[in-house]
Amino acid sequence: MNKEQQLRVDLAAAFRLIYQMDMHESVANHLSAAISEDGKKFIMNRRWMHFSNVTASNLQALDSDDDSIMSTDQAPDPSAWTIHGNVHRKYPTARVVLHLHTTYATTLSTLKDPRILPLDNNTARFYNRIAYDTNYGGIANSEVEGKRISDSFAGKQALMMGNHGITVVGETVAEAFESLYYLEKACKTMVLAYSTGQPLNVLPDQLAEQTAASWDEFSGAAEAHFEQLKAMLDKTNPDYRD
Q: Does the pLDDT value for residue 140 go beyond 80?
């Protein structure tokens, strides 16, 4: 299996897993992965295709420098094109881009202060490692809004999109998926902690940074987690590889 085919299989698996974990939304939201060294050519789900129907072969190849496809019947979703196209064009190292409206992250994004505070291991994972965009400009279907969103990343591994949702990036599908997985868990912890009405016991800055840095020691867990989840898919829904 060549490099692009393996990438297609992994990205298709991510779609199916996100569907199984109920982190999808109708036929919206998009996942993409770069297939060129400069990141400008990438694969992404086709317009209005449900995550449960995505396969390795039906992922669409796109070029962020060529918008002629937007005037054809094969055009991807306009908001997906503006977000993913701009992120891939601006950040060649952001090989995989996952944009979703997951329940707890979206809920947190609607608060006046959408920050993930360091309360435990999972929330501290994102300490100083997530950017915040609180300048929501409506559905991101314009080039201006796409560029504004991509600029908001500021080199971080994730973006909390105020009144919108989240976007995470990674060097591999497994890495990006693991960030998404823990980001949603962190947001759930925040929402549930706020719901108690009790004062939050926020970790001091130095301890929060130490905890966040400690996660680097477990980087291999992302690949292990993702490979075992794919093995589960292979037993129940192996057609994602088609």
A: no
DSSP three-state, residue 122: helix
In 101-229, where do the E strands start and end? 130-133, 158-161, 165-170
Q: What is the spatial distance between Cα 228 and Cα 235, in angstroms, rounded to a whole number?
A: 11
Count of domains observed in the chain: 1
Contact 56, 8 (CB under 8 A): yes
Token code pair at residue 33 = 């992965």
Residue 141 has pLDDT above 90, yes or no: no
The pTM of the full predicted model, rounded to 2 decimals, is: 0.95
The pLDDT score that the predictor gives to residue 144 is: 81
Burial 183-216 (b: 16+ CB within 10 A, else e): bbbbbbbbeebeeeeeeeeebeeeebbebbeebe
Give me 129's structure tokens: 């490692």
Q: Which residues pair with 168 in a beta bridge?
A: 98, 158
Domain residue limits at 191? 3-241
Amino acid (one-letter) located at 129: R
Q: What token pair was written down for 5?
A: 């085919």
The CATH number covering residue 115 comes to: 3.40.225.10
Measured CA to CA, the distance from residue 217 to residue 184 in angstroms comes to 21
| Cβ contact 35:64 at 8 Å | no
Paired sense of beta strands 130-133 and 158-161, if any: parallel
Whole-angstrom Cα distance, residue 158 to residue 135?
Answer: 16
C-alpha torsion sign, points 148, 48, 104, 125:
negative
Query: pLDDT of 162-206, one tens digit each?
Result: 999 999 999 999 999 999 999 999 999 999 999 999 999 999 999
